[in-house]
Specification:
13 helices, mainly alpha
Amino acid sequence: MSVSALLSFTTALAILVRIIANPLSNVFQKQLTARSAHPLFITTTTFGFLSILCLAFSPSLHLLRLPPTFWTTMLTIGLLSAAGNVLLVKALQLGDLSVLGPINAYKSVVSIVLGVVLLGEVPGWLGLAGVVCIIAGSYFVLDSGTSDSWSWDVLRQPEIRYRLAALVCTATEAVFIKKAVLLSSPAISFVFWCILGFVVSLVWVAIALRHQWRQQLALAHTHWRTYLLLFLSVGLMQLSTNFAFEGIQVGYALALFQLSAVLSVLFGYRFFQEKNIRRKLIGAFIMVAGAVLITLTA
């Protein structure tokens, strides 16, 4: 197998893993918040567990060979990742997975703009058409189906605001992750994504949850299986994201990740008995059509 063929296979496999792992991690996050786990504690323990696993790889990281730009990039990623994950879990605590999962489609728009500015990645017309299609599909997902027309009042809902704020953080983070991957490797970037995310969120926990951490630890002990599944799904999600970024433009990769919108809708129905699933599935499949358009130019 040639180098280019191997890279294409790795990229395709990474995208497939990411599509499955992301909505699964959202299910576990929502289940834990329903059991009174705090979003910040969930985020911190996730980073902490993954950091412990990453320690096994530290001897082979060749830290002295990494350029100074890598460290400033990773510090930015750590801050954005901690904030984005906490906001995402908070949104899942308040809202429906079948809505908040597909709304992630807007991330591709933010990342394409930032990718042009920061990385010089200019999308083609067919790729832009795919992104527009993805956004159009979100019309059906966001609309509750209770009125004849879509209303901007949906943006006043706190879970939507939290999700959009998380989206801005993670879309910006994605561009910096791509830069970190180019400066190092997908594996090295993943290791420091875990470690720096843990450091930032641990400081946050020490300030915000200093009176609740014992209660949260007790909950973690009780629901350790769900936490473990969350840790593994988030780890797979981020590692596959890094490998996908190695082989494809950020904006296109994030748009392709929206294939997980269908799974988010189905998981919302299966695990949380969420409503208006037929309409949401229509929107999700329109998003999938947009992703297919993007694959033609990737």
